[in-house]
Design brief:
single chain; TIM Barrel; two-stranded parallel sheet; about 15% strand
Length: about 280
Amino acid sequence: MRIPSWIKEATRAQRASSEKTCAERTVRTHRLHTVCEAARCPNQRYCYAKPTATFLILGDACTRNCGFCSVSHCAPSAPDPAEPLMVADAAAAMGLRYVVITSVTRDDLPDGGASHFAATIRAVRQRLPESRIEVLIPDFCGDADALRTVLDAAPDVVNHNVETVPRLYPTVRPQADYRQSLNLLRCAKEVFPAALTKSGLMVGLGERFEEIEAVLRDLRDAGCDALTVGQYLRPTKKHLPVVEYIHPDVFAELGRLAKQLGFRSVASGPLVRSSMNAEEQFNET
C-alpha cells in the first residue's frame, strides 16, 4: 500500500535531524537499551530531542515473537543486576522529570522480570525522588504475584497494551491472551488504585470500528484511565503488512469516543505511540 501524505510528512519532519542528541549519548554511555530503537519507533528524533526516552530493561531479546514487533526474538541473556542503577543514573544525567520503563517479555524468568522492574523503579525513585515513573509491563503470563511485586514499588502509572482487537490476537499476538491483559489492568487498579492505569491500541491491521469500540468499553470496564491509539507501521517486510492507513479524522473520532466513555486522558493519532508525550498525557489527568 502507498504510504499516505499525513504519514510521510510527519515522519519526514521528525527524521530531519541527524545530530546525536544528549539522550542518545547518555543511553550509549550507560550501555542501555531503549524501546525507541529496538521497536524502530518513528518518533525517535522527536522524543530524544525533548529529551526523553523509554528505557528497555531485561536485555534486548524477547521470548515472544509478535507479528508486529521488531524487537529481537532469540534466547535472552541473564538480567544484569547493575541495570537498575544504570537506568537511574541515565535518567538523572538526562534531567528527566518523567521516566518511562519497559521491557522485553521474559517468559523464561520465574517472575517474568517483575523483581527487576521493582528494583529499577526503586533505584530511579532514590536517585530522582521528585520524578514520576511510568512502567509499560508485559502480562507476566497472568501471574498476580508478579504484578504485585511491581505495584509494591509504587509506580505512578501502570501501562499494559492490549495492542489490537481480540479477533486478531492469533495473528498479531499469538502468545498472548486478550482477557489476560484486561485482567492484569483490572487487578492493577484494584490492588493499587493510586496508580494511573493505561493501555494502547494499534489500528490498521484489519480491525473494524465496532471492534475497536468494544475494546475501549472493555478497557473502561477494567478501570483503565488513559488510552493511546496509533497507526500500525510495518517495521520490516518480515512483519505483518498494513491492511489500512487510518485517516486522521477517524483518529479524532476515536479520541472523542474514548473521552465519552470516560477515559481521563486520550492520545489518538497516526504517529501516537504508547510512551510518546507520556508526561504530558499524565499531566492531563
